[in-house]
């Protein structure tokens, strides 16, 4: 008897041909829907909706999704930034069955360095957009702890000196006995040198503080589209067509890691039109 696998059951979804005809070669977000469903099966984004959707149809590993799909719809955007922000927002709001990433996180964690030790802090405790010396974004404390332990192993840092582990007075840390610490806890390395090495090791993962005094609008436009994405301390608020009527400023301490990654890439690595609002 033939084995019931996705590759064996995969067939090009002929019933979707009609729904594919109207897909644009433009940036935006697209939705896979099951019959009579009020929540999409899958949400994706692309700078070319038509090309991206057709790539799904040629992917054997997505046969299960395609068998469940009855129609495909889309929402165009002015550009790629808007598509990324809209996709991340809708996935968190609607929680589609086949989207495994970009799910809503109640809180994020980071490593806070105060020049003497490292603490694991929550986005509920500190405003990550305004707090200096934060390194990395983690889903939970366990992930943050695993990261700093691996970093210490790689750079021979002392977890006791960093405040992560306890140390007996007058004795070196446990890792120094294993040759995994250069011995700052035994006086073999100065605190200044150790902390300088620790900061250098962490530098790649530093969270950028919000670089503006308040809200900004990122402007994207193409023929027929004129979008202003309102951003408040790395938090995506919404998208408007003009700046005459703006939503109120955010009052809650809310930091979204997905929006941060999208916007950080855009603001620091791309030539985009940024308008300060206040």
UniProtKB/TrEMBL annotation:
Residues 25-100 form the GIY-YIG domain. InterPro entries: GIY-YIG_endonuc, GIY-YIG_endonuc_sf, GIY-YIG_UvrC_Cho, UvrABC_protein_C. The keyword Nuclease applies. CDD domains: GIY-YIG_UvrC_Cho. The keyword Membrane does not apply. Keywords: DNA damage, DNA excision, DNA repair, Endonuclease, Excision nuclease, Hydrolase, Nuclease, SOS response. SMART domains: GIYc. GO terms for molecular function: endonuclease activity. PANTHER family: EXCINUCLEASE CHO, UVRC/OXIDOREDUCTASE. This is Excinuclease cho. It comes from Rosenbergiella australiborealis.
């Amino acid at each position: 008897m033939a084995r019931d696998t996705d590759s064996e059951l995969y067939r090009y979804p002929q019933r979707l041909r009609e729904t594919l005809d109207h897909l644009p070669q433009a940036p935006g977000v697209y939705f896979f829907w099951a019959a009579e469903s009020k929540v999409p099966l899958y949400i994706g984004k692309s700078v070319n909706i038509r090309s991206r959707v057709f790539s799904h149809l040629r992917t054997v590993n997505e046969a299960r999704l395609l068998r469940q799909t009855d129609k495909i719809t889309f929402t165009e955007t002015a550009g790629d930034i808007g598509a990324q922000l809209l996709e991340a927002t809708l996935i968190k709001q609607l929680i589609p069955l086949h989207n495994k990433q970009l799910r809503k996180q109640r809180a994020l964690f980071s490593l806070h360095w105060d020049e003497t030790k490292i603490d694991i802090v929550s986005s509920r405790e500190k405003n990550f957009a305004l707090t200096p010396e934060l390194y990395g974004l983690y889903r939970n404390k366990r992930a943050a702890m695993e990261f700093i332990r691996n970093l210490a192993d790689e750079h021979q840092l002392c977890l006791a000196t960093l405040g992560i582990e306890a140390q007996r007075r007058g004795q070196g840390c446990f890792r120094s006995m294993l040759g995994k610490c250069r011995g700052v806890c035994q006086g073999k390395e100065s605190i200044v040198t150790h902390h300088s090495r620790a900061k250098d090791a962490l530098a790649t993962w530093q969270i950028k503080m919000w670089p503006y005094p308040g809200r900004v609008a990122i402007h994207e436009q193409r023929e027929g589209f004129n979008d202003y994405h309102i951003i408040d301390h790395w938090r995506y608020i919404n998208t408007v067509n003009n700046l005459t009527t703006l939503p109120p400023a955010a009052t809650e301490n809310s930091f979204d890691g997905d929006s941060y990654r999208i916007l950080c890439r855009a603001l620091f690595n791309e030539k985009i039109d940024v308008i300060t609002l206040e």
